[in-house]
Amino acid sequence: MSKREKDQLIYNEIEKTYTKIINPRLNKKIKYFFKLRRYPGENVKYISELFLENGIKTFEVIEANKYKTVTKEVVGKTLTEELENTNNSEKINRLIEKYVDIVSKIISLNVYFGDFNYYNFIVNEKEELIVIDLEDYRKDFFSKFRKKEMMKRLKAKLIYMQNIMRNKNENLNGEKIYLKIEEKLKNMI
Length: 189
What we know:
By secondary structure, this protein is of the alpha+beta class. The chain has two domains: 8-72; 77-188, Transferase(Phosphotransferase), domain 1, CATH 1.10.510. Helix content is 43%, strand content 15%. The chain has helices spanning 26-33, 40-53, 79-84, 89-108, 147-164, 174-188, and strands spanning 8-12, 17-21, 61-65, 68-72, 77-78, 121-123, 129-131. A four-stranded antiparallel β-sheet has the order 1-2-4-3, covered by helices on one side. A hairpin with a 4-residue loop joins strand 1 and strand 2. Helix 4 packs across helix 6 (174-188) and helix 5 (147-164) packs antiparallel against helix 6 (174-188). It is globular, with a radius of gyration of 17 Å.
């Protein structure tokens, strides 16, 4: 059996776009074929539109089909880079509050995602957070049933990110960030 090709990401410097060609495993292809899950390219477009309609910033999708997306470049640094490269606790506070707001809103939309790492968010020059890496976000019938699992993973990711940041700032306490998200979700209901 041949090895699966990796996904390809191609940057067009002239047009300032990214083309992502997705090469999923066979088990995922079967799920797409039987409509148990959206094709990844189509899912990126769907999630992007859903987020934009709900005030969540993300990249512009120029083209999308089953296994390919073309998106406009998002200029900025990852949230991880911003948090690691500043000692300004007010800025860290602002960015974490924006992160809490966005993650809470995504969860309240019954969208499932298992990787809310800081590097999946870009901070632009206006200090806005832009959500990236949309092909693994899912909104389907089962999303609301996966919430408990997603919250468990979110808590683990936040604690993991806190350890990576070496407790640089009290505002990066993973447990506290998780509790803020939980509280915000309760207030959204």
